[in-house]
Amino acid sequence: MAARKQLWHPDEVRQKIQASQLINRLTDHVNSPTPLMDSSQVTAAIKLLGKVLPDLSATQLTGNDGGPIQVSWLPPER
């Protein structure tokens, strides 16, 4: 096996790993018949996720001058 180029994780990768661990923990809590986390742990996990993951409900894409985006399709070159 080839050696890794970087022996450390960049901060962005580390945040994604931590976010996925929080998501997994919250998902296990929701799907469990008995609570796995108390309310303060759930609140803390949701707050931490809000800092790492973007809030997609506040995202808006606009084109020139605030108008709609125009999408054009070009056939692939042969």
Jot down its keywords:
0% strand; 2 helices; mainly alpha; single chain; 78 residues
Instruction: Choose one word for the global shape.
Output: extended
Tally of helical runs = 2
Percent helix, as a range, is: 40-55%
Rounded radius of gyration (Å) = 20 Å
Overall pLDDT, averaged?
82
What share of residues are in beta strands?
under 5%
What does this structure look like?
The protein has helices at residues 11-31, 39-52. The model has no long low-confidence stretch (mean pLDDT 82). By secondary structure, the chain is an all-alpha fold. Helix content is 45%, strand content 0%. The chain is extended, with a radius of gyration of 20 Å.
Topology:
Layout: H1 11-31, H2 39-52
Helix pairs in contact: 1-2
